[in-house]
Amino acid sequence: MNIAADIVFADVKHALAEDVGHGDLTAALIPANAMSSAQVLCREDAVLSGQAWFDEVFHQLNNDITVEWLANDGDGIAAGSIICRLTGLARPLLTGERTALNFLQTLSGTATLTRQFVSAIKTTDARVLDTRKTPPGLRQALKYAVRCGGANNHRMGLYDGILIKENHIHAAGSLRAALDLAHATAAKGTLIEIEVEDLEMLCAALNAGATRILLDNFTIDELRQAVQKNTSDAKLEASGNISLDNIRTIAETGVDYISVGALTKNIRAIDLSMGFDVTWQ
User: Fold this and answer.
1) Is 115 a known active-site residue?
2) Residue tagged active-site, from 73, 195, 237, 256
3) Rounded to two decimals, what is the model's pTM?
4) Range(s) for CATH 3.20.20.70 in the chain?
5) Can you give the pLDDT at residue 277?
6) Is 195 a catalytic residue?
7) Residue 68 falls in the annotated catalytic set
8) Which of 23, 122, 193, 243 is packed most tightly, with the most Cβ within 10 A?
9) Which residue among 24, 75, 132, 133 is the active-site one?
């Protein structure tokens, strides 16, 4: 569940610039030498994610602020639990409060929902994947949160994998032509996947040598038939209208992957709060 430090730095720098601008007018009401301690409370059951972003907020505001974590990313957190404690100058603690909580509650929301999907297909051989359906600017962060929740990342962007869709097939001239072009031009080890919309297209993709096939909006019965027709080593991925209500049934058809756009698209932030205890000096 590693995340590159430069990604976190850039995310936080942008978020602070957006929120703080030329200065925190309200925090400036507090004496410059006022010290404070604070703690973050989780008000609902959750899976923690976002520690690096939380820490970086206060690191960029004041390097002397200390954060003591009582849980790690990926841990389940019970409602009413204290997640971390902070100590330092009151001004930067107050300035960073909202930005730090925004990262922590958003990423924990994604990790929590992801864990629910992963738990729903426990004991099956299928794996949950995310998608590129992320709010602009938070792709790396949200995909990190997905990993904290126990699922796997699909391609990070357009640059690290090929996913051939209907319009690509039309532009290339045929399904086979699109696949041939992909295999001829892609670097070794690059993901090459093709999306199919029905069983006829599936058979065409298998005959063309596809090794990874996305089954777009297949019914449960069609998914079962697709698994039966796949006599090669091709990996099958179910996608489209996946929910907690149907993912178990989908996994039991025998598909290898299930991609869930809701993980990073339908984000509900976890309810967190930061309480302060200010000591004046």
Assistant:
1) no
2) 195
3) 0.94
4) 152-259
5) 85
6) yes
7) no
8) 193
9) 133
